[in-house]
Hints:
Strand content of chain B: over 45%
Strand content of chain A: over 45%
Helix content of chain A: under 10%
Structural class of chain B: mainly beta
Oligomer: heterodimer
Number of helices of chain B: 0
Amino acid sequence: EDKVVQSPLSLVVHEGDTVTLNCSYEVTNFRSLLWYKQEKKAPTFLFMLTSSGIEKKSGRLSSILDKKELFSILNITATQTGDSAIYLCAAPSGGYQKVTFGTGTKLQVIP
Amino acid sequence: DGGITQSPKYLFRKEGQNVTLSCEQNLNHDAMYWYRQDPGQGLRLIYYSQIVNDFQKGDIAEGYSVSREKKESFPLTVTSAQKNPTAFYLCASKASGGPDTQYFGPGTRLTVL
């Protein structure tokens, strides 16, 4: 059975802190791992990772994949209150269209 | 304007009633998905469809049914057999041959009274 596990489940930090969110996975015929941010309703896409060791960056957010250890991390530096959201990671099963999501990490950034 | 729409936004249902949630996309995507989200949690896959007239059960299909008669549409029926249907339901679509990025609708919040 495909499995995606995120940790921690929730996190409260102060503005300006740096946070690291974790995602481990076990999926059939792995081909990519995706990160999404969900503020109120629809998740919005952040990153798609396919290769080990190559960091993807977008402003204060960055992410990296380790295909040997089967995990990914999402880093957010200099956090702002607007970063408060649920962060989701997901992994499609290769060869099929099934996509499995993790449990999510609820991040709250307080002023 | 390409996108994915869900209706209604909010839905109230009495126990014992079936209800159908609508999902439509004009992105020309082959694959469509239904997820359930409970408060503060991640997404759990209910059903997905790779192509018209074909769909597969996800991890929590019991008490739900779907159809895929048209490429653009993937309605979800929550039946009275679903023990705890109150939740937020998200529909998504994805291009089959392209990147694995899914596009999500705005969601339907179902409350059973």
